[in-house]
Design brief:
Blueprint: E1 2-6, E2 9-13, H1 17-34, E3 39-42, H2 49-60, E4 70-73, E5 75-77, H3 88-95, E6 107-108, H4 117-130, E7 136-139, E8 161-164, H5 167-173, E9 186-189, H6 192-196, E10 200-205, H7 211-219, E11 237-241
Parallel strand pairs: 2-11, 3-4, 3-7, 4-6, 7-10, 10-11
Antiparallel strand pairs: 1-2, 5-9, 8-9
Helix pairs in contact: 1-2
Amino acid sequence: MTETKINGISLVVAPDANAAAAIVADRFASLITANPQAVLGLATGGTPVQTYQQLVQKVQQGQLSFQSVQSFNLDEYVGLKGDHPQSYRSFMNENLFHQVDINLDRTHVPDGAAADLADQCQSYEAMIREAGGIDLQLLGIGLNGHIAFNEPGSAADSRTRLVDLTANTIQANARFFDTIDEVPKQAVTMGIGTIMESKGIVLLATGEGKSHAVERMIQGPVDVELPASILQQHPSLTVVTDPAAASQIQMA
């Protein structure tokens, strides 16, 4: 494992994807141990699954408890109820919540099936504020540099809101549905401004396919056309990768 600072960002390159997931899991476990009432920001997708498996294992072995933790997820598809198998609520229940001792009433995922989505977005922001803000936010990164569902062009001060998904994102998510026509075209997402208010951020990226976006995020200019690059301005950001995802970074 190597750790270095680039543009103020802590970059940790793990030996492989499994080790990267373990590093992120240990970061969350250390926070929860130090602060059992920690407020976690959580993500969905293929990348964080191994991290969640590591956390589940720690709980099952009696090393960790989520009993007093509160969590907020980044996003949810519009039009899918929480019990839909492809909803992000279902994903979180399956991969983490139902396997640990967390109080489900303290787990929050945007309601993509809400009758009033604008009100849902405002309520979500209010709940984060009432919780005292997010202590540690987990992020992934899209091939086009998006974070959560903040696509290229998203404002740096954007808040939780309704967004249209790009054709590339719809195509990338089609693997989770029977046909591409079933992929929702909109989502509710935390905004970049919301994410940037987290006290700490850890971004996990693995695989060669993410290497270009990771390099631009860390070493490119800050540009809303690559939303993740705005994270350079966060005072406490750690990026954890495997060697493939870090392969295009110019190390000093």
